[in-house]
Design a protein that fits this description.
Elements: H1 3-15, H2 20-27, H3 31-39, H4 46-56, H5 60-69, E1 74-78, H6 82-95, E2 100-104, H7 107-116, E3 119-125, H8 133-143, E4 148-153, H9 159-163, E5 169-172, H10 177-184
Parallel strand pairs: 1-2, 1-3, 3-4, 4-5
Helix pairs in contact: 1-3, 1-5, 2-3, 4-5, 7-8
């Protein structure tokens, strides 16, 4: 159940002076659909959330953020070096304590994971053994356009190519607590990270 979204929707609808039936009529759904969204038993899909924002006259990110806030975000680290994973995963867990943090040695398994789980943030090595991180970024964004991507590399030469893919950031290896915190400030689609800084 997503009570944050439910409470946000009910509050905005009430502030706008709309009944559930009036909102349903404007959305071209039934009143029971609005009721389910407001009691947290169902969530609207992306198209309906965008339509809700338009009908209610609010920024769509307000509703998207509310929809995602009750979930533990999925954060992935993709690098073909085990040492980077073993050193980097604890850093991500420290900085984003409420996240499900998972590491992958290759692009293929990361894509399979993303197809079945909403990835909020992906740290990607630019040069993987059997794939390019730039291509992996495009694949992840095709699966979920709201995935934040931060590129990792030991070579700053890649930074110009990286920006053309829709990434949120770029950082040199290794992952550090301070470096990850800086990247979180620049995410295209912020999410609740947990911890004392929130």
């Amino acid at each position: 159940m997503n009570q944050t979204f439910a409470n946000t929707l009910k509050r905005i609808r009430t502030e706008k002076g709309l009944s559930q039936q009036t909102l349903a009529d404007k959305m071209f759904v039934t009143q029971s659909t609005i009721a389910r969204w407001e009691n947290g038993s169902r969530l609207p899909d992306t198209v309906m959330t965008t339509r809700l924002a338009t009908v209610l006259g609010v920024d769509v990110n307000t509703l998207f953020t509310a929809a995602e806030s009750d979930e533990s975000p999925n954060v992935i680290l993709v690098d073909d070096m085990k040492l980077i994973l073993s050193d980097g995963l604890p850093v991500l867990e420290e900085v984003i304590p409420n996240a499900n943090v998972i590491g992958f040695l290759g692009a293929e398994e990361a894509i399979k994971y993303a197809e079945n789980n909403r990835v909020s943030l992906a740290f990607l090595d630019i040069e993987l053994r059997n794939a390019r991180g730039l291509d992996l970024c495009r694949d992840l964004l095709a699966i979920n356009p709201r995935t934040n991507v931060v590129y990792l590399t030991a070579y700053s030469d890649y930074s110009l190519d990286a920006w053309s893919t829709g990434a949120s950031g770029f950082m040199l290896k290794p992952l550090t607590v301070e470096g990850v915190k800086e990247q979180l400030k620049n995410l295209r689609y912020p999410f609740y990270i947990g911890g004392d800084d929130e």
